[in-house]
Design a protein that fits this description.
This protein has about 325 residues and is of the alpha/beta class. It has a single domain, classed as Arginase, Chain A (3-Layer(aba) Sandwich), CATH 3.40.800. The protein has 10 helices and 10 strands. An 8-stranded parallel beta sheet has the order 4-1-5-10-9-6-7-8, with helices on both faces. Helix 2 packs across helix 3, helix 7 packs parallel to helix 8 and helix 8 packs parallel to helix 9. The structure holds manganese (II) ion. Manganese (II) ion binds next to loops.
Amino acid sequence: MEDERMPNFLDLAPVSGDVDIAILSLPYELTTSYGQGTASGPKACIKASTQVELYDENLGEDLPAGLSIHTVPPWDGDEATLLQQLDSMTSYLIPWFMGDCFPVCLGGEHGILPSIMEAVRQHPLVENDLSNLTVVQIDAHGDLRAELDGEPYSHACAAARALDAGIASLLQVGIRAYSKEEHERMIHDERITTFFAKDTQSPQNGSHHWNQWLQTLTSIEGPVHLTIDIDGLDGTLVPATGTPVPGGLTYWQVEETIQTLFNAKNAVIVSADVNEIGVQEDSPLTQFTAAMLATNVVASHVSARRKGTWKPTETTSGPNRQKVDFRGFSESSGGE
Ligand SMILES: [Mn+2]
């Protein structure tokens, strides 16, 4: 079973020429609290994606809708230290973050986000300065801890590390599990806007908060990275994610978030990730839900291209790209 051929995302034919959309796999798991299997998540998600319908109603046609979608072989780093692993992931990602194609990363635990931020830094619209980048985070957790069990690069610190990297703003939704320290940071850090699940999911006035969230997305300007921790969804939809939590977003709320974001007139979504994908054994629901969301991200990107809000910033090049040596994490740290 293990050595069966790995399918491409959506079971599409291999790409030999230009790449318009790159599907990247980061099977990275180091610090997930008590779930297991996010390292196998990207592979399970790609396998599940072969069962996703190619027809997209908004596009009015089947994916890939005239574009080339390339499934990049997974990152296979096996470095000695955590910081070297983060460097290795960034090296793997950078060739796909040069603005000529749209990268969609599948994870792996949310600890992949710092590596993604370093790759986004190389994007021509970001120009090595993250201070014009907005990160939109769908998540059950704040991920704003300074450290967890002594580890600053824990999945529980992903958003805090993105802020440390210098991003302009962090917009969070689905949030319902956080510490006192994280709650205080959400309230006092002006770069953070948090939409709590207890508000957006309130049976009495949830729609008021939800409309505010959609308006917030619509008014974003400049480059954006979208990070979807699938535990932002209600735990019933993703029981095999690292830390499933009840009381979360519905599937349609996440789709509406994706579509509203990609439709924002003055925002350019430069990259996205779908992370904390677990492998459910009794049913493919968890990995299939992740595959549906990744497909929706791809279709929404196609729509943004058609509207002209996303344009390639360089000449498109093919699927064979060299890793870029990156040592930012291991060299900038003064040790543990
Ligand atoms: Mn998270």
